[in-house]
Specification:
The chain has 146 residues and is of the alpha+beta class. It has five helices and six strands; from the N terminus they run βαβαβββααβα. The protein has helices spanning 15-20, 34-41, 99-104, 112-115, 126-135, and strands spanning 3-8, 26-27, 48-53, 59-72, 83-98, 121-124. Strands 2-5-4-3-1-6 form a six-stranded mixed beta sheet.
């Protein structure tokens, strides 16, 4: 199992909208970067990830999980090279963790959010996941094996 980070501009798709999608979740559509697409193709049901508000807020605000494996992206107008996964909200991050905090912490110097800022779907290492959960006030982080 693995951990991920999904970036979205709140004006396009916000954490509140993700939560409102409920237990069924929703497709994570519109990814048009091959590395980000390949990351989604590597995901497994139950993998957890961070929901990150990009451009506005610049902070990790929630935790999501994969609820449907990679499949054709319905927003790709039939182009078979683009896939998506479905994700559902798991929980709020009680104290959102900002990009500024992450960049200031040497524990994250190799994190994709710092080294590959433009990548919209990124892997997160186990230790990065646990440390961000700690910073965000989560005592018992939901694990990808849950």
């Amino acid at each position: 199992m693995a951990y991920w980070l999904y970036k979205s501009e709140p004006s396009a798709w916000s954490w509140e909208q993700q939560k409102a999608a409920g237990a069924k979740g929703t497709e994570w559509t519109g990814v048009r970067n091959y590395l980000a697409r390949n990351n989604m193709r590597a995901m497994k049901i139950g993998d957890k990830g961070f929901f990150y508000h990009s451009n506005e807020g610049l902070e990790i605000v929630g935790i999501v999980e994969v609820c449907a494996l990679s499949h054709p992206d319905s927003s790709a107008k039939g182009d078979p090279k683009w896939d998506c996964v479905d994700i559902r909200a798991v929980m709020d991050v009680p104290k959102p963790v900002t990009l500024k905090e992450i960049k200031a912490n040497s524990k994250f110097e190799k994190m994709a959010l710092v080294t590959s800022m433009r990548l919209s779907v990124q892997p997160v290492m186990d230790e990065e996941y646990l440390e961000i959960c700690r910073l965000g006030g989560i005592d018992k982080p939901p694990r990808s094996s849950d």
